[in-house]
Amino acid sequence: MAESHHPHGHSHSHAHDAVGITERLREKGYRLTPQRLMILSAIETSDEHISAEEIYAQVAARYPDVNISTVYRTLELLKKLGMVYEINLGEGRVRFHADDSGHHHHLVCQKCGTVIDIDESTLSSLRDILMHDYGFEAELRHVGVFGICKSCRRKKSGGR
Asked: pLDDT of the chain along its 160 residues, tens only?
């Protein structure tokens, strides 16, 4: 009886970041299954934007019986709650990141698929112009700009 305060004997020391989302889910009354926790930690420990398939692979490594639709349903829930954001980087797959990983803007090369992070301030003048000229408050938390990167442009003009 005295041991009841150790739910599964797992202590996640690296999961201090995950506390944000997991606590907020708990507060909203959502059950935190081991699979959901794995999905959260996959998103939060990923340096890059992570696809649903990559999340699924990580979770399935630990829980082979997990279904990819569980991953999709959990991602939908987290999106609805504003805890993760998705971005389509034009590779036919949507990628996800936790809402506390800052604002991200990307330049995406349509030839080689390179993704270049750009500084948030790069778009602040666009935000100001849209507000000033159109009275439109732009949601520029996550923007992907598509085009051709420097090295692909060089190859093109290299004349071969």
From this structure: 444 443 343 333 343 445 577 777 888 888 878 888 888 888 877 777 788 999 999 999 988 988 899 999 988 888 888 778 787 766 666 777 776 655 567 788 888 878 787 877 888 888 899 999 999 988 776 777 889 999 999 988 765 4
Chain centroid to CA 31: how far? 21
CA distance 105 to 110: 16
Domain range annotation of the chain: 14-100, 103-160
* Number of Cβ atoms within 10 Å of the Cβ of 3: 6
Domain 103-160 has CATH 3.40.50.970: no
Is CATH 1.10.10.10 the right assignment for the domain spanning 14-100?
Answer: yes
Cα 64-42-20 angle, rounded to 5 deg: 130
Which DSSP state fits 51? E
The amino acid sitting at 64 is: P
pTM: 0.55
N residues, the chain: 160
Instruction: Tell me if residue 105 falls in helix, strand or coil.
Output: strand
Nearest to 89 by CA among 105, 72, 69: 105
